[in-house]
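Assemble and predict.
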Amino acid sequence: MSQATFRIWRGTREQGAFVDYATEVSAGMVVLDAVHQIQSEQAHDLAVRWNCKAGKCGSCSAEINGMPKLMCMTRLDQIAIDQPVTVEPMKAFPLIRDLVTDVSWNYRVKEGISQFRASKPGPDGVWRMKQSDVDRVQEFRKCIECFLCQDVCHVLRDHHMHAEFIGPRFLVYTAALEMNPMDAGDRLAELKNKHGVGLCNITKCCTKVCPEGITITDNAIIPLKERVVDRFFDPLGKLFRIFGPREQE
Amino acid sequence: MASYERHEHDVLVIGAGGAGLRAAIEASAAGVSVGVVCKSLLGKAHTVMAEGGVAAALSNVDDRDSWRVHFADTMRGGQYMNNPRMAELHAREAPERVRELESWGALFDRTKDGRILQRNFGGHKYPRLAHVGDRTGLEIIRTLQDHGIHQGIHFYMENTVVTLLKDGDRVVGAFGYDRERGRFHLFEAKAVVLATGGVGRAFRVTSNSWEYTGDGHALAYHAGATLLDMEFVQFHPTGMVWPPSVRGILVTEGVRGEGGVLKNSKGRRFMFDDIPENYRSQTADNEEEGWRYTQGDKNAKRPPELLTRDHVARCIMREIREGRGSPHGGVFLDIAWIKERVPHGAEHIKRKLPAMYHQFKQLANIDITEEPMEIGPTTHYMMGGVRVDAETQMSNVPGLFAAGECAAGLHGANRLGGNSLSDLLVFGKRAGEFAARFAKDHGAGRVNQDQVEEAAAGAIEPLNREGGESPYALQHELQQFMQDLVGIVRKQDELEEALGRIHSLQRRAGGVSAPGNREYNAGWHTALDLKNLLAVSEAIARAAAERKESRGAHFRDDFPAKDATLGAFNIAVTQAPDGGMRIERVPVVAQSAEQQQIIEEMK
């Protein structure tokens, strides 16, 4: 047993400050364990959002020593605990209290994306798909909606363009729909006009912080950008669509 | 007078896991207005943790499978304490519910010919679990969520219900608070669906999150509903045991389905040492046959690691108690050994069990493709719950429905892995359908203002009280003695001791303090959850004391055998008029002639 100090943000939208808490730490502990221990022993009303404690629900997102991480998956033996460990709320969303932010914007954004539309199944009523085609989409569907990618995206975090840009999480969501072999929807126009796919300038910060290891930029965002460019900005393609053979619905 | 926001819906669903979302979608499709209240954010409920798969006799991998086999497997697994009509409806309707999810965008793993792939699981005769690697629950909850948000349902996220409101016998709404500001909310509704999940937080070692404090069980009980089978708590055989902070986190049964084996410290596969009589004909004769089964050989029988969860958990406890456990008080679960048999074994394991690989690597510094895992039993699932009508899911309280883990009946004395996700879909849909119908057939009830005032005043007490005990301390105390005295192995004197301590905690819970204000105050929430945790703990201990036999998940050290007389009864728990808890034996629902015949054929 040894002691470590956690410098935790306490406060509301209006005012707040870092408060240092010293607590016992033991083998295998994660940051969320330390926060819980502090909550149950020293700061009963410390606000923290969590559920599964196993990296599966994406509730306990925070910034630990400045890095966006899940508290439940950050082991104390992977960070320096000989100096105070700062734990603070995500910055891209309004603060509710202490470590909890108002992430409701994300839920509203999702409602604005055209939903899945099933294509016709085969004649026997069964959808047949190759595993290799499904694999690509399953990577995106691993997303646990922790919103760390949104938190780190400078378009949202620094430029506050929440009204114009849906952020990496929802570009991944759109990619999962667009690349779903069963989907019959078309979201390219909304991507370009409403969802600001062009605002992403591929700095890959989102990919770096994804706790599920989703290759957000390369596998989701860039292919979407390419599809939008092909559709709306390629003059030859445009002519081909006007004068070429009609696509089957 | 208390101040609160008022909301009105035809159907109010409490809980937004698989059952709640499926109920809400169905009710909304029936054209009524639907509100969903959930304790956490949308998409974070415990369904997200389900790993192995959803059981449905699609017969994609083995065409010998059918609803009849699934029905018989479910009944055998539940030691025939199940409601047979629920087990039949579940087996018949699960395939359609799974296909429907696909039409809403779920992407399951595929067979070679492109259909939904199915895997082996404990107690299921044929490969039956549709799955997505080992994150099936995430796929299901996300599909329901992403479909549900476009159905005109109103979601109240991070809201907790503290009491159900009644007009005479009938339930007419609920009263609760929001976490963000601590404001009160009055929900008026013509029908209420409980879909609140389990009770795992009553125990120290659990795979459940903070939310699982038996809210639906306790709300229903206090509203006059009957609870059933509360002694049957499932301890999943494989939870993580080390490091201490992750103790209890689930290790999917899928590890054993893919060929993982259990070993004690002597290196012995101890599961071969104790095979129950009623499963002997279905269990592999040797290790080689067991391996072939996991690799899809239709002529091979399953390895004993895939016996039912209650049995595997007890065998593991025996090894630990008799001194053959692993260094941190578990046993070994080895999947790395399959590298001897499978080309590119390490890659194969990572592809089949990506979440498990990730979980052990990150939380325990263990590479499961190289070394065995240390595992031990963890509190996982509540078979007991609100007694409901098999067809409609309505409780004995008019207008009050329950579905999923907080309802009883489908699983009997032990749940088979994979039958929970299918339960949520099948009975969530039914609850939504019949709640909507009830709402259409009945006018709005009258909310009793006195009840609202009383609930509001009670809820605020811990905030205003100074110098009382810490709610966290009481919760920890309860979890510790429930684990020690009402856990996997039970005895009369220990159960009575537990009941004494529960009563003392019930008195002390009335004196806890929650410092701070109403905004996102976890101490306050913990104080309010105590009432529910204590009610379900008492129900579990009382029912366990009443069942003086060992059956399914309920094991009595002082009565280690089955008792045929007790096997004919379920144990019912109700609140007596004097406020005390009443225990009664009710006959198990009789099987129809056809059901009996199916069970006989499949023996």
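The longest strand of chain B covers residues 4-14.
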